[in-house]
Amino acid sequence: MKKLFALLLFCHVAFGVKHSLKYFLTATSGVPNFPEFAAAVVLDEAQVGYCDSIRTAEPKQDWVRKFIKDNPQHLEWHINQCSGNQQFFRANIDGLMERLNQTGGAHILQRMNGCEWDDETGDIRGFNQYGYDGEDFIALDLQTLTWIAPKPQAFITKLRWDTEKARLQFNKNFYIHECPKSLKMYVHYRKSFLQRTDLPSVSLLQKTASSPVTCHATGFYPDRADLSWTKDGEELHEDVDKGEILPNHDGSFQMSVDLNISSIAPEDWKRYRCVFQLSGVKDDIRTKLDKAAIRTNRGFPAGAVIGGVVVLLLLALCIAGLFIWRKKYNGTQQHKNSCPAFTFKADIYKNISS
Fold first, then answer.
1. Which of 188, 205, 207, 312 is deepest in the core (most CB within 10 A)?
2. Domain containing 243 — which CATH number?
3. From CA 161, how far away is CA 332, in angstroms rounded?
4. Which pLDDT tens digit goes with each residue over 229-247?
């Protein structure tokens, strides 16, 4: 079984990973207790940067803070881009409301743009699309260099934007060359920052004496890892509940696996091990099932596990509220710049409402 897992883990690495860099920008009108403008940068489905009409641009992970410290001009550029896009989106949502004869109510204009890169095949895919009030409004087709308008209300915008050949070429260059260049730079910088020489932390946790024993591993990178329970060296599949790999605030990852101990005799505990395996690392981390090593209730590291889940839930709620429109597009696979960092430069200052 162990040999089979090692083979599968190797195959997973061999297939490569699809990385993504996405920019989400949102303008609102008539939405109480929410910024009139907000923007987020998401790398491999984890938020790494944010700004809005109230708060200035700020990095969201430790490796990004280090990147900004090493390259302070990137933060300055981001602040300028955030300010410029705020004016652009504010003008456009007002113009759209006027054109559609909307005098009140809650309205939301959004843009999702960015690129994907497969680090195994080298394939690149760019995207740039707008949404209005929860529905697709207009999107760029990089193959034909034309705009697609799924709604009749966007057709006048399509006709105008299709004539702007210089802008279309700018978009093509940005999404096919500049954006992927940025994406690769961030991925490599993050990897060099998070690739650790020390081993991740592995702990045994238990809420009550009758609860399952949780084996929790945290602080590892990349996310190609496995955590399992074994008995006499053989991996267990029954009485085991394996959790998903989740991101930590610093860009590293964590995961856990529960073992139901209700049917395990005390004298048999010594036969069980929690085994952590990280792709590319020769030695596994093996932790013996031992009552003396279990942290129970008061020793349960809520900050590591529960806190991490709460952060993820809050982020999910933020994304759901901020980005009501987030259409799944063909060919997208979610991951479980020569232009400076966190720029939103494509299509800036182009009127969507005329």
1. 205
2. 2.60.40.10
3. 25
4. 999 999 999 999 999 999 8
